Amino acid sequence: MAASRATKSGFAAEAQRKIMSKYNEEHAQEVLVWIRAVTGDDIPTSGDMDTLYETLKDGTLLCKLVNELKPGSVKRVNTSTMAFKCMENINNFLAAATTLGVPTQEQFQTVDLWERQNLNSVVICLQSLGRKGGNFGKPSIGPKEASKNVRQFTDEQLKQGDAIISLQYGSNKGATQSGINFGNTRHM
């Protein structure tokens, strides 16, 4: 059970409404369908907030997910429903997500899921992880990740580039400062 907090009011309530308004049920459903495909668990795939929260809140499914992508990512998954054990699962998932290549700016904080503060950021993190699925031989979601395109130039090719004057720099032919008035002119 999540920690209970006093209901927000004023600016805090407005900020929370704004955060919750960004939640997209279609994206959440896509993520849940992907988790089901990777883990093989028979989980509900409705994209509403309640389903997402109830499915992921204890962190065990998240740990199983990263262990399916890369075995041994989370060494020990807590099955206890005690709050600190569930939050430890979520933290272990986030640490594994980092090692699997999910950028920190696309990750959520533990309280975003555990206290249901920002479920949209949970979906964003899982979408980012979902794009990496193909790197581990599993199904992926979203656009294909770009791959490196490293180019090797010889010294001769690099020297040829020094001799070319790029027209991107433009031309200064006929450039004068006439007609340019900066600031206020003197009126007489």
TrEMBL record:
Residues 25-134 form the Calponin-homology (CH) domain. This is Calponin-homology (CH) domain-containing protein. Belongs to the calponin family. Signal peptide: none annotated. It comes from the Eukaryota. Transmembrane segments: none annotated. InterPro entries: Calponin-like, Calponin_repeat, CH_dom. One of its GO terms (cellular component) is actin cytoskeleton. One of its GO terms (biological process) is actin filament organization.
